[in-house]
Design a protein that fits this description.
single chain, alpha/beta, 20 helices, elongated
Length: 434
């Protein structure tokens, strides 16, 4: 059985842990949990480090539990936030939980007959009937306000620039998270909580609550992974268009694949350890190969391949690569027609676009030269277009135009809406029929 702590250490996934954690993990099969708030119906890549921790935990022979914070998600956690979260209703939370479980099932084995099969729990199940009076008596009396106030996450909000301050609801968050640990210890034998390093304060409140409630002889532990950043110090996983989601409807596999393909050399060397299950010798060999010829981007390609297959599928990876070839390499009309609309728009994001009247393409259609040099500005003049077509330098939907006055009709539309004009090797124009 692999040493879980050692696995995290060489991968750069270990921030801090309570004394005795490593010894416990080497002594017995440990049940550990990690919490995630169901504030959306998809995880994004900011969640991936925690999910990979659970994956490594299970592969090292221990039992992972992922806790969906249905109750805590109704409140909001002050850690690392400058303002309070929106509260969600029960129906939305349940929907989000099911979507998250389907995503996590690609990383963890929930179906195993072994004792370390993964489980998913929702703290709403044990919090929904817990009255305020019960909570005050069973939880609140064990943890002092002084102890809670000393937490860095609370101090940051109290002393920060947020106009709203810190609500009582959020202030009690660490007690709720602490009670989760207590409940899971008593009902599931959970001895270890995993999480991001910004959760350390909440996690240690849990171990303290267990100690004060059940006695000093009961030992529980906490272990965190570092918050992942980019080499320039900026937040990982954010782009100009927002989060990179695991749900293909929110972030297409093509855009997902491109995100990993375009990380810097330094980030690729860190990320391939964190976000894949590749063994150390394989990664070391890839790093060495990359250093021999960085221009080939060996690390980025393998990273993008591994993570895209893990999150989506081998078929999704193949489609993402095919979509990349449409823009950057040789491709066919058939490959173009196989793209779904969102992937098509992602591939040609940033390419000049022209909107045309659909009626222009009706019946016998419009001559290509009229479409590209008059109705749109793909070419500055008919003469330039004629000359370029004669030289074989113009394509429509990845097929070379044989004649400059060739008819373009509705039958040429991709997804019933788009025409792709290519001028030379690198200049694309997307025509949108409305």
């Amino acid at each position: 059985m692999k040493n879980f702590v050692e696995e995290l250490r060489w991968r750069g996934m270990l921030a801090q842990m309570m004394p005795g954690t490593e010894e416990l993990l080497q002594k017995e099969m440990v049940t550990a949990y990690l919490g995630t708030d169901p504030t959306a119906d998809s995880l994004h890549i900011g969640h991936l480090c925690g999910i990979m921790m659970l994956r490594h935990l299970q592969r090292c022979g221990h039992k992972p539990i992922i806790l969906v914070g249905g109750a805590t998600g109704m409140i909001g956690d002050p850690s690392g936030k400058s303002q309070e979260r929106n509260l969600l209703n029960d129906e939305t939370l349940r929907h989000n939980q099911e979507c998250i479980k389907a995503q996590v099932a690609k990383f963890l084995d929930f179906e195993s007959k072994e004792p370390n099969a993964a489980e998913m729990v929702n703290n709403y199940d044990w919090m929904k009937d817990f009255t305020f009076l019960d909570f005050a008596r069973e939880v609140g009396k064990h943890i002092t306000v002084n102890y809670m106030m000393a937490k860095e996450s609370v101090q940051q909000r109290l002393n920060g620039t947020a106009r709203d301050g810190l609500s009582f609801t959020e202030f009690t968050y660490q007690l709720l998270q602490g009670y989760d640990f207590l409940y899971l210890y008593k009902n599931k034998g959970v001895k270890l909580q995993l999480g991001g390093n910004d959760q350390w304060g909440n996690m240690t409140t849990g171990t303290e609550l267990i100690r004060r409630t059940l006695g000093n002889e009961v030992e529980t532990f906490a272990l965190t992974c570092p918050l992942i950043t980019k080499s320039d110090g900026k937040k990982f996983g954010k782009t100009e268009s927002g989060n990179i989601w695991l749900d293909p409807k929110r972030t297409t596999p093509y855009r997902f694949y491109q995100f990993w393909l375009n990380v810097s050399d330094d980030d690729a060397e860190r990320y391939i350890k964190i976000f894949t299950s590749l063994e150390k010798d394989v990664i070391d060999a890839l790093v060495e190969e990359h250093k021999q010829d960085p221009g080939r981007r060996v690390l980025q390609k393998r990273l993008a391949e591994e993570v895209t297959v893990l999150v989506h599928s081998r078929e999704a990876l193949d489609m993402a690569i095919e979509a990349s070839n449409i823009l950057f390499g040789k491709s066919t009309k058939e490959a173009l027609q196989q793209l779904d609309e969102q992937t098509l728009l992602d591939v040609f994001d940033g390419v000049p676009q022209f909107r045309i009247q659909r009626s222009l393409l009706a019946g016998e259609g419009i001559k290509a030269v009229e479409l590209m040099a008059v109705e749109t500005q793909c070419f500055p003049s008919k003469g330039e277009m004629r000359k370029m077509v004669q030289g074989g330098g113009v394509s429509l939907n990845k097929e070379k135009l044989a004649q400059f006055d060739q008819a373009v009709t509705e039958a040429d539309l991709i997804d019933g809406k788009y025409l792709l004009v290519q001028k030379g090797k690198k200049n694309y124009y997307l025509l949108i029929a409305e």
